[in-house]
## 1
Amino acid sequence: MIEKLFTEKTVAVDVAAKDWEEAVRAGGKLLVAAGCAEESYVTAMLDNIRRMGQYIVIAPGLAMPHARPECGVKRIGMGLVRLSSPVCFGNEEYDPVDLLITFCAVDQSTHIEALAELMQIIEDEEFLEQVRSGMEKDAILDYIQTKKFNKGG
Amino acid sequence: MKILTVCGNGIGSSLMLAMKIEEICKENGIAASVESTDFNSAPGKEADLIVTVKELAEQFENRRVAVIRSYVNKKKITEDVLDIIKEISG
């Protein structure tokens, strides 16, 4: 399923951001540009991080900003940003961050399949290593399009 | 037993954590139902164990809470929850 979500529009490489807010905005912009979310969703993602902390940095160097379905989501979406230089979110364990995966979901459950597949991307250390060492955008998309995902259960 | 995984919105991190905990329980032959929820709804929900990160753990007074260091790293999650789950289900 996520091969349909990561597209030309929702993957951006070598994005310049001076701090975590700019980085999250860059990731949010992808979802807006792809027609998955309203501008207000980007603000909601930023608010969430300010309010609830930095736990969205879920793995070394990897943040997963998101907000609630009712905060301006139009349809399910996922975006990938590679920063040209890393930023800190204030997460003791996993800063600094150079990769962001933003996502939006329409409810609590219809994106479970996409999320299960996303976890397999996050756990694919070899792939993330390639992304970090300058993998081209087309190659990133190709990889996700052709990756075989294990079905859950 | 019933396990509640908690994050800010209940749709991202806690859902991924719930999937991992389901796997861990299954591998260890522990019967558990795992539900993910958001920070605000969590206090009103019944559960034998609440699993969340330390930033969100403080609000759960008088509840059994397991604090995890990662929402997605299965090894770390196992280290942080398995003993407690075994103890409760035992």
## 2
Amino acid sequence: MAKITVTVNGKRRQADVEPRLLLAHFLREHLRLTGTHIGCDTTQCGACTVLVDGRSAKSCTIFAVQADGSDVMTIEGLATNGELHPLQKGFWEEHGLQCGFCTPGMIMTAVTLLADNPKPSEREIREGIAGNFCRCTGYQHIVNAIQHASKQSARGR
Amino acid sequence: MAAPPVLPKLVGQRVKRREDPRLIQGRGTYVDDVALVGMQHVAFKRSDVPHGKIRSIDTKAAAAMDGVEAVYTGADIAKLLPPMPIGTPFPSPEHRAVAVDTVRFVGEAVAVVVARDRYLARDAANAIVVDIDPLPAVVDVEQAMTGKPVVIHPNFANNLAVPLVPSGTGVAEGKPADDSAIDAAFKKAEVVISQRMVNHRLAPSAIEPRGVVAHFEPGKGTMTIWSSTQNPHILRTFIAALNGLGQDQVRAIAPEVGGGFGAKINIYAEEYVCSAISKALGIPVKWNEDRTEAFVATTHGRDIIAYVDLAAKRDGTVLGLKMRLIADIGAYNMLLTAAIPTLTQMMANANYDIPAIRTTLTEVFTNKTPTDAYRGAGRPEATYFVERAMDMLARELKIDPADLRRKNFIQPNQFPFTTQVGAVYDSGDYGKALDRALKVANWEQLKKDRDAARAKGRLVGLGLSMYVEVCGLGPSAALPTGGWEHAQVTIERDGRISATTGASPHGQGNETTFAQMLADQFGVPIEHVTILHGDTAVVKQGIGTFGSRSQAVGGTVIHLAGSKVKSKMAKFAAAMMEASEEDLVFENGTIAVKGAPASAKKFADIAAYAYVPVPLPAGLEPGLSDEAFWEPANNTYPFGCHLSMIEIDRETGEPTLLKLVAVDDAGTLINPLIVEGQIHGGLAQGIGQAMIEEVVYSEDGQLLTGSFLDYALPRAIDFPRFELDATVTPTPVNPFGAKGVGEAGTLGSTPCIVSAVVDALSEFGVKHVDMMLRPEKLWRIIQQGGRS
């Protein structure tokens, strides 16, 4: 077992974990933050995407021990003071989700996408979320949702 | 009282989904999010041999691990569970939830472990040593039909699960199959198109893999089972039956379900096994499918070969259609497996007035994962076969593919139209959808663009496909589960409305669409309406969500239950207001006498009165709650037209989808925003099948596409922006006129893409290319100048 300290959604967490424990399972089962989903076992689907030290990362492909000392944000930490993040609003406004299973990972990927490129073209959005699978939407409304957030953020600045 | 704010009518509006706030914040509860005190984890040991006799299973090392609660072999499970049932009236070989002496596909469960946590359960499953004596495996379905090299189930000669189902002219009227009409059609034919086509195997791949939590409570003798299922009530029926319990003793819960696409209709071995183990051990257990496991353990879709012969006159008039279908159903018959290809037969008539049709269907066992429903389930196959044949006919006769379709359409005045395969199409205007699609796509301009691109040496093609689909399933005569749906609508004491639906959603947005309907019906804000679903303890009865039936059947019954309650509420209001109930209007959160707005009483006040009825109006009982069952007299038959433009890279053979236009007619729409989402998703899966998705087995029965590394699930970069439009032809089958839309996108898209590729390759004299359209295949065609 290994002792780790991870700040998750602003809260310092300490735990003894098996060295092989995936960050995704640490979040889901030790911290009961079940908004981070697991949809594959080969790092393709992106449903488990969270922010590690401010950058989107697939938490199924990081051991919890590797996140020791890191700052992690999950979907549960994205809204501030009850106010939805512009991406969350975008997904709601534009019907960017159906079953909702890929949604947390999709949103957390888009956070980094927009941080790097606040006004992405449609092509850049499609490339930016190519590491996240959605089986329900055909992606078009997800693209719309990210465009919506991009416009809202631009307006907010 | 002061005039209340006017509430907008919501049916037909793009209302934002009411499901979304919890889902975009990660606050939904999917099966893997369920945690119970004392819960243990289940893992399955699966066969890596496609066919063989189990010689021995050594579980000692697994059982000895600290934290392992129990280990079961197939023989142990057979003591807890009878063989698994199927849901169709076809004969079926014995199918054990865990193989007892023979394995028949890679991924078939051979042993089960129960342990403290999921990692340990997996470790223990890996520590089980299974010795299997390999038998020959058969993968090629047409070889399997010869009985060589092996017969998979002893009582099914030549591996024929269903030897031959005839359908078509005459059979539909209950007469024996008589080929004289079809023979005469082909004798008269001036041109005959004959083509073998493969509609290949797919992995449904909901992003949430399956999962089960089973909790048997020995003190009460009751079972609660959470499962990622499309139909909790059907699950309850089967879990009760196999565990020797009454349906009153089983509660089935479908919490948030992360997509289904047909593959979560079936009741699976893992659901039976978890329930039986929980009952045996008296503890809650959980199983969650790994993705790699999903590729072998969750049913596949499609996999039908058709030998199609289309007879026509040189002017394009279709005279007859022959379709010999061979379905590769894999190693076992699952819940609906055998019924799915019969839907291909049922829709062989497509959109056309075809004088004579003969189809036959043979279903065959192979050493592969079993097939069952996958989005479209039999209808995309029918559409693909007929529309590709129509495209080939148009090409042969040098007739514009749109003109050829138009010439053969069933005309609007022919509805209701009884097809040669016995379906009764409810309503339709196919020419209107075609014309709309041609206009939206600017078809004539696209042709010019294509020709201009070709003049520069580019390989560009256009494809067109019509479709008609059977939805809104359906009359009970057509569904072994019963074809009705159930709803209960309750006006609570505070005037808010709760309603239950048996149509258990997994992304369809029923919480929104059904609330739109009730909000309009009662004239209350949508925020005052809650739709409950997915829990048999809350939802008294139900069938489930499949066959694009949620709105057409589930929506209808919500409205009917609402009507009953509304009528009773009107009686209370009439008594309170000393008015006649016929004169009352429900609007803007009030009930008022028509034309006398000052008479308005708050909706909530009438509700409160109904629960403390002093005085109780004569002939009324207290309370405001009622239920309804409803089943449609017929299925619905939505239709549409999909167009595509494709470019193939001459150097690499890689196809790129440049344009996809979809005009869909799903009847009356309740929420066009949600409908668009459904169509987009269907298009993505239909395009995925044509262009990149394919389940591939090696010749010796190993699954080669066993993860997302090898199975190409479409990504955002694989699609252009889809262009959608709609025509609206209501169905007379239900009062709202809604037909259903969940599967439509998968029907027209696939053939229109293959036809576009054939068009792009026309300079090489190509007449047909089987899916999927891998660049290597197209590159070879280009390299060989069309000689394949």
